[in-house]
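Quick note —
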Amino acid sequence: MTQLDITQAKANISKVLDLAIKGKEIIITQDNKPVAKISPIPLVLRPLKRGSAKGKVWMSSDFDEPLEDFQEYME
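Predicted structure written out below.
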């Protein structure tokens, strides 16, 4: 865990964010008292389940019919 004074953090915000991207926690202090914490947001992957989109997808009955606008290209 890294501690930085608020003035240091303001002056080096891009470096502070780079540390968070790399997985580090940064504590921001003012007058040697912690006032904020910057930490990476964990990537949450939920497991895929078969059928989880059931009823959410609709396909027209003429989905695979040729389009009238493209008839000349199909000849």
